[in-house]
Amino acid sequence: MSRTTKAVEELTPQEAAEELAALAGEIAEHDRRYHGEDAPTISDAEYDALRLRNAAIEAAFPELLRADSPSQAVGAAPSGVFAQVRHAKPMLSLDNVFSDDDVRDFVASVRRFLAWPSEQELAFTAEPKIDGLSMSLRYEQRRLTTAATRGDGTTGENVTANIRTIAEIPDELPKDAPDIVEVRGEVYMRRDDFLALNERMAVEIGRVFANPRNFAAGSLRQKDPEATRARPLRFFAYAWGETSEALAETQYEAVQRLGRWGFRINDHMAICGSVDEMVERYRAIEAERASLPYDIDGVVYKVDRLDLQERLGFRSRSPRWATAHKFAAEKATTILRGIDIQVGRTGALTPVARLEPVTVGGVVVTNATLHNEDYIRGIGNDGQPIREGRDIRVGDTVIVQRAGDVIPQILDIDPEKRPAGAEAYVFPDRCPACGSHAVREEGEAVRRCTGGLICPAQAVERIRHFVSRNAMDIEGLGEKQIEFFFNHEDPALQIRSPADIFTLKDRQGSSLTKLENVDGFGAVSVRKLFAAIDDRRSVPLSRFLFALGIRHIGETNAKRIARHYLSFDALRAGASEAMMPQGKGDPGNAQWQELVGINGIGSVVAEALVEFFAEEHNRQAVDALLKEVTPSDEEPVGDVSSPVAGKTVVFTGGLERMSRDEAKAMAERLGAKVAGSVSKKTDLVVAGPGAGSKLKQATDLGIEVIDEDAWFERVGQ
Ligand code: IVH
């Protein structure tokens, strides 16, 4: 331990930074010995002294707060302490817009979807977007039964005991509240409470939080509700989940009603009748931002009429009837110390800026993305100059921007501060991990490693993706562990492919080194790791597909594809048999048509899927994996009891009561599949005025044809 023992006030910033770095490493090591191995090497008092010293330096040099600081580890409670709760209705997120024009586009898209003429009135609410944590409070027979965090939107954590300690959340609702209601809103901490308490925390327990939001999160995750009680948490109600009866006819009225039940509601909520009024509200709230006692990061607009919200419905993650107008991102100036190249799972080389640490909007930033080599050279995606053509060089003074949870980026440089002798950055044409050529394909901004299967960086990234939270979600396999297993010399302890993860437990028996004796593991963590792995031997099909890491198949597309084929066998058969169009005029075969007929799936995604299954080594990897893991069949989505559930419907000709998009969304909500063309698989054709060839085809094939009114009658709406 080579630390100075100077008083904190006497430290120079340089010494403080060095000591914080040393403390972060040291405390992490003690944590590991204590939790991972149950074998601490220092006394509790010595350990506390280290944490206190760390907090004291951080309090004196807040700009040096490290991302890996021990004070930033959220709560003592690892995930898994709280029971899981499945939300009766998913907790969605919001789309973001950034400019007045975006707001105009949002309103136009709502009108288009509803086929709502421009002269007809359409009101929106506008209210601050609170920077806290969303929470769902379930009341049954007017008593609070469950409080759950958002989690992944479908399943959250049960934090009821902690929520009950928040004084301003009612335990009981008045008589006029429905039998079942889930009140949703934001748990947050006021800025003044945060500042006062953070100072006390630094002294008392050696932990400080970067901002009120993190503090609120840490407070909610306390194992002991009494610890939560000591934290001044608050709650704004602004939405709801399941309700046994409608709350009101409009958003505004519904929220007022929540207010009458005793919830705090935001008094900056207003109703706006036009884009101009919405933008005006946004400016007014922005102007008040600094003087509000709590943090906000934008303004949320919601269609006021609840019947229209119902018609607009949802996309995969967010409602069509709401959007968040974010405030401009925060910026700061710092120095670019170096540029590293990261290799992703698809081989893309991404330049990452290593920065002199700087605080941007309350968070310390040390890394930022530089996007790609053109970006560094001052060339935009369209081939045109950006930053007036200025390139970015190591040593430059740079402007960093951080917007919400997005990875920080370098916006520009200060040309006057460029040090003499700074050289233009030369982007490598070889992969830094495997030495293979890195090439740029025609029209692509990204340079990719051509090493494919031999590139260790790609393999490691594929495994990291495979185990990540929204994919297979295997806990205990972080970056370090994956690299450890990947590089291990003993084959019994190697993980080189996803399937290897699942055979590790059986294989390690034949190893001379016992995993639990390996530095960094220990009996407890090994047991936990194997339990976490075994827990994921059955996962939903959409997760499994996403985990495979096929290009262009992110979570949303994985869900779309999984929900269409429902089982892995059907999906694989469909993708393996699909034949892409060979040149103009060739529509591809029926399997290809089926694939590109899935809502939201275009030819680029379809091609990536087909190519994946065409590769022998991918098929082998999948086969090996299927010996270990069983993807569970996807449940058909939508209302399975509706009269059109499971049917394939084609809309053709003009529609008068709704837009084409709304028709499609409605059919899908009712469990039907919507196809673009008529075939033998079509069950129903809804034809409006002016229908032509599709109507004729349907008649020829003897498929049932109805008009728009009959459609509404049939689905009972
Ligand atoms: S409405 C279905 N209103 O923002 C949409 N959300 O980025 C329900 N948030 O997860 C959300 N203030 O945690 C809504 N006034 C507000 C909000 C708000 C903050 C959060 C919420 C949500 C996130 C989406």
Summarize this, please?
The protein is of the alpha+beta class. The structure holds 2-(butylsulfanyl)adenosine. 2-(butylsulfanyl)adenosine is lined by residues 92-94, 127, 129-130, 134, 150, 186, 238-239, 300, 319, 322, 324.
Sum up the structure in keywords.
717 residues; alpha+beta; OB fold (Dihydrolipoamide Acetyltransferase, E2P); D-amino Acid Aminotransferase, Chain A, domain 1; 5 domains; 5-stranded antiparallel sheet; 24 strands; 36% helix; binds 2-(butylsulfanyl)adenosine
Structure write-up:
With 717 residues, this protein is of the alpha+beta class. The chain has five domains: 8-73 and 329-417, OB fold (Dihydrolipoamide Acetyltransferase, E2P) (Beta Barrel); 84-320, 2-Layer Sandwich (D-amino Acid Aminotransferase, Chain A, domain 1), CATH 3.30.470.30; 474-535, no CATH class; 540-632, 5' to 3' exonuclease, C-terminal subdomain (DNA polymerase, domain 1); 648-715, BRCT domain (Rossmann fold), CATH 3.40.50. The protein contains 24 helices and 24 strands. Strands 2-11-10-3-9 form a five-stranded mixed sheet. Strands 14-13-12-15-16 form a five-stranded antiparallel sheet. Mean pLDDT is 89; it is low at 74-79. The structure holds 2-(butylsulfanyl)adenosine. 2-(butylsulfanyl)adenosine is lined by residues 92-94, 127, 129-130, 134, 150, 186, 238-239, 300, 319, 322, 324.
